[in-house]
Each structure stands twice: as structure tokens, then as C-alpha cells.
Amino acid sequence: MPICINTPITSAKFDIAVCEFLAANPFVNNTVIGTSRLNRPIHALTIGHGDKSVLINAAHHANEWITTLVLTRFIEEHANDIAQSDVTLHCIPLVNPDGVDLINGGLGKLRDVYKKVSTMCENINEWKANICGVDLNSNYPAGWGLAKENKFSRGYTKPGPRDYVGPAPLSEPESCAMAAYTTFYDIDITISLHTQGEEIYWRYPGFNPPGAEELARRFAAASGYKLEEVPDESSHAGYRDWFIQTFNRPGFTIECGLGENPLPLSQFNDIYKKVSELLKVVIFP
């Protein structure tokens, strides 16, 4: 693009990087699949024309913004090879631009927004949600009612920094755009980059998509990450959950890195090395 990996990302920096990347790689297509609550564009970059369609997304959660850098670096380094592969790769590196801007000082003149949101959270670095306080990865229809019951029982009953499921499934423009884009392009495999734990989640209760377990094991072997079951408190209403339930196709959540979110940029090289090997498994089999 090139994305600078030495400074935190904002939506404005990402928009500039996208323009530079497209200028240098005219074979890459960019679609604005929707806009955030603050009218930030949500970009989908598409590379290749293969029969198998793979969608990789990052930064559903605001304080997991390092995943945006990982995904954009991957496509920057491998765009030409991806274009020659048997895959059509769809990349949505910044699902939650408003939340990332909140964390990384990208709200600009919207100081009133920052002031309002900051009253919901003593430490702004703990913010995972979108700018309205909805956890985007708890806003999808799969088991949304169960997720609501679970989160409410733990006190997450209203907008805040994390785990509020929203007033209804797909109530947020960001999650709605993700679901619509995934459906329109009839995606075969999805990979969602999150942090942290160096873990791979691939199941949704009651579903066993063909080839999912084998691919999960190959991901684990390539990255050194562990295969794990989703903990009860995190089950349901996630993007991966919705994709598996809706299409019965392989969907994965990759928890990158170790430590406390937001992970420091000093971890970038280690995360990138492991995750890039994992992503190559599905793109260059």
C-alpha cells in the first residue's frame, strides 16, 4: 500500500493507503460495501478470478486494529501471486473504522463524539464496539437471542465498550454491510482476524461444514496456533457463527498474538509471520 506498521492505523490513513495500493495494482478492484455510523467507507478489495472465493476480514473489534495492518501487509506482499492463483480473494481489512478511530485518535473534529463515548469507558483502549457501543461481532443473526441472554446475564445490557449485542440482529450498518456482501458474492470460505490468544475457532454448534476440520488442522500446522472450542460466553451472534449457520461452509476466527488488547506494534512481525503462513494455506494450497 504501503501501510506503515510503526504507527496505529486510522480510517483516514487506511483510505490513503487503499488509493496508493490501487494505483500500484490496477488489477485489484475496490468496492465500498457500506459506510459506518460516522459515514466512514468500508472497503472491500478483490484480487483474482479463481473459482474458489475466500473472504478475509479484520478489525471487527476496535482495539484489535493490529489485524488491519496484518491483512493489508499480506495483500501488499502477495497481490501479484494471488491474482494468478485459483482463488478470488475478498479482503475487508477495516470493518469497524469508527471504533478504530476512537482508539487511535482518528475522530478529528468530532470531539463531542469522543467525549460522549468516553463517558461509557474509563480506559478507551478497552473499547471493542462500534461508535454506538454495539459489539459488531455479537450483532449477527446466528443465535442472537441466546447471545443476548448470555451477555445480559453478565451485565452487558446497554451500549458500551464491549459485548452489547445491539437492539436487533444486523442493527448496525457495519455488520449489515458484511452480511450483504458475503451473501451477494456467495463466499466459499471466511477467515476473521481477531486478537488475541494464538487460537483457531472453526465450529458452530450443530454444523460441520465439509472440509472445515481438515482446513482448520492445516491452519494450525502452518501457524502453530491451537484449535479451540468457542467458550460459552463468546458463543453465538458472531460473523463466523452466522456464516457457518447460513451457508454450512468453512468459517474461521483466528485469534492473533498474545497479551492484552490492543496488542503492541512490537508484536507485528511475529504475528504477521504466523498468520501469513496460515493464509497461504487457503490461497496457495
Strands, helices and their partners?
Blueprint: H1 11-24, E1 29-35, E2 41-47, E3 52-58, H2 66-83, E4 87-92, H3 97-104, H4 111-118, H5 144-153, H6 173-184, E5 189-195, E6 199-201, H7 212-223, E7 226-228, H8 239-247, E8 251-256, H9 268-283
Parallel strand pairs: 3-4, 3-5, 5-8, 6-7
Antiparallel strand pairs: 1-2, 2-4, 6-8
Helix pairs in contact: 2-9, 7-9
Taken from the alpha-carbon principal axes, the silhouette is globular
SSE order, as H and E? HEEEHEHHHHEEHEHEH
Overall mean confidence score, pLDDT: 95
N/C terminus separation: 25 Å
Structure in a nutshell:
With 285 residues, this protein is α/β, with parallel strands linked by helices. It contains 9 helices and 8 strands. The chain has helices at 11-24, 66-83, 97-104, 111-118, 144-153, 173-184, 212-223, 239-247, 268-283, and strands at 29-35, 41-47, 52-58, 87-92, 189-195, 199-201, 226-228, 251-256.
Protein traits:
eight-stranded mixed β-sheet; 38% helix; 285 residues; alpha/beta; 9 helices; single chain
Question: Can you tell me about this structure?
Answer:
The protein has 285 residues and is of the alpha/beta class. It contains 9 helices and 8 strands. The protein has helices at 11-24, 66-83, 97-104, 111-118, 144-153, 173-184, 212-223, 239-247, 268-283, and strands at 29-35, 41-47, 52-58, 87-92, 189-195, 199-201, 226-228, 251-256. It has an 8-stranded mixed beta sheet, sandwiched between helices. α2 runs parallel beside α9 and α7 packs antiparallel against α9 (268-283).
